[in-house]
Every structure is written in structure tokens, then in C-alpha cells.
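Check my protein:
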Amino acid sequence: MENINKNRLFLASCISLIVTAMTFAIRAGILGQLGSDFQLSDTELGWVNSMAFLGFPIATIFGGLVYNSVGPRKLMIIAFVSHLLGILLTIFAGGFWTLLISTFFIGFANGSVEAACNPLIADMYTKNRTTMLNKFHVWFPGGIVIGALASKFMTDAGMNWQWQIGIMLIPTLLYGFLFLGQKFPKNENIVSDTKVNIKSLLSPLFIFMVICMTLTATTELGTQQWVERILGNSGASPMLILAMVTGLMAVGRYFAGPIIHKLNPPGVLLGSAIISALAIYLMSSATGGMVYVSAILFAIGVCYFWPTMIGFVSEYIPKTGALGMSLIGGAGMFATSIWQPVIGSWLDNAKSAAIDSGVSVEQAELMAGQETLSNIAIFPMVLVVLFGILYTQRKKLEANRV
């Protein structure tokens, strides 16, 4: 790797992840505007959201299967083109169906970023994979902070949602420029035999982690994507909550190294599940200032889920290679895509029932958000049990760790 500019590749990877996060945050911030402009229900908005989470796993499955043969450079070209298409098509969308298509392209671009960058970073930094993957994934919450604040200030300034989508073209063009002309590593430190990768996917441990990933991703992203609709009448600013939560997550991930070395990945995952369950339970009944308190706990809880899951697969099930890292992320996003319209229907049904009981629309929306959070709290509660089982096996797992 003597002729490879690791710092530039890592920086470009981080900026591409910022774009991924901004698509997530800004979409969360403009859901109300989209619903108003195109007369969409929460259930229909859930289907629009689900396209981003569906495009992601399709891209990670495709990227994981071809990574060994085409490499990260071509996958990042696909990501760049798909981001441009998705952003431009969203700006000029005319209704429900065009929003579905454009949002799918954005999700496909986001998945391509993960399929390329996770194994790229694991290959470049083989001696401290989980730590560097956490530092890379700093920029998912970091990008959400950028996107959430941009969405809030642009909305407050009276700028329409098209401008908010358009601002994402700036970091997209920047990461495209940074990757331009760079030399990439050639799978020097990860298992690059696709047949071995596929065979290793049948490991009971990998299947167990896939199941867990569907729950960790929905706990984190299912809550965040609906923050504006869930907390809009709680007496707290939803986008400031999102910015605060993701800002704390970014700080936590940046300093993840000592925590991971101290507790090891299974311990980190178990602790995260316990704190997440408590946080969402508190948030389901909180109003005013207590929303911020429970949100801080939520940030601490979900902070390490995503990068530690990917790092766990890379370190404890190394024979799955790039394919394993791609599929674990894809499983998380696919599960989140399935739950998006379900969460939307929870909100619609709870709001309708509350209005039928005679309360005001604002109170009905608050009650619907709290009931929906109570439902979401079930996911981390199940994770406490699953990661508890994993934690009891940590000594056996260490024997095969890279």
C-alpha cells in the first residue's frame, strides 16, 4: 500500500458518508412539507422512506458480491452517479411515484457507499478495524447534525424543500473530486475469495448477527427517521433533538477505541441495548425538557450499534470478507425499510383513535408519537436478551478474533 494515499481515501469515504447521512436527516426534516405539498398520509410517507432503506440493501448485496472482482473504485463511481440522479430527480419530483423512484436511487447510492468503504477501510487499517470503522461512522451522525441544522434553518428562513435537497449536491461533488484519480488497495488484508465468503455466511454466528442487526438498525434509524412526526408536539424541537442526538453519537464514535478495547464488542453491544431500551421507554412518556434528557440517553445507547456490528463481523467472522460487511449493513437497512410503513401506520392509527376519543389534533399527534415509541421500545428489549447470550460466549469468540 506504499503508493496509496490512505488519508485522502479515508477523507473521501467520510464525505461520501456525510452525503448518506444528509439524505437521511433532510428527508426527516421535510416529511411534513412533502405530505402537505403532495397530499400524502403518514403511511404513504412511510412508503417513500422505505425506498431509501430498500435501495440500500439491494446495493450492498450487489456491491458485496462484486467487490472482490470490481473493487471499491467502481462501486464509488456507481454511488456518485446514483447520488446525483437521486438528488436531481427528487428536486423535480411531481408526486408519490416520482418520490418513490428518486428516493430509491438515493438509497442505492447510500448502500454503494457502505459496500465500498467498509471493506476499503478494513483493508487499509487491518490492525484496528473496529476503531477505524467507528471513526468512519462518526460521519453518519455527524452528517445528520449538518443535515438537521441545515433543514431547520432553511425551513425557518422560508426556503422550500427543493433547496434543502439541492444543498446535498455540494458534498456529493466534493467526494467525487477527492476519489478522482486515486489508487485503491487490492484486497490485501481481507479474504477475497467469493466462494469462501459465501460459504462463511452459513455460520450460525453470522446468521445470529444478521438477526440482531435487523433490530439494532430499526431501533436507531426507525426512531430517528420519524423524529419530526413523533416529537413534533412534545414541546421540544424535533430537528434540534435530532442534531443533539447525532452530535453526541459522533463524539462517542470518535472516542470509541478505548471503550471497545475495555469492554470488547459483545460488551459494548449489550450495554448499548440496555441503555437504548431505557431511553426509548422514557421518551415514550416524556414532554418538554425531559424529551432532551431521554434523547441524550438514546444517543448513548444507539451510538455504537452500527459500526460495532460491522466491526464484529470483520473481526470475529473474517472469512465472510467484504460480502459479510456489506450484507450485515444491508440486513439492517432492509429491516428498516420493512418497518417504515408499519411505523407510519402506527402513527396514523393511534392519531385517528385519539381524535375519535375527543382530544385536539395537537394532543392526538403527541399521544400517537408516544404510543409509537412504546412499540419501538420492544426492539432493544429483545436485543438485551440476544446480546446477553452473545456476551456469555465472549471468551470462546476471542479465540477466533482477528
Remarks:
- The radius of gyration is 20 Å.
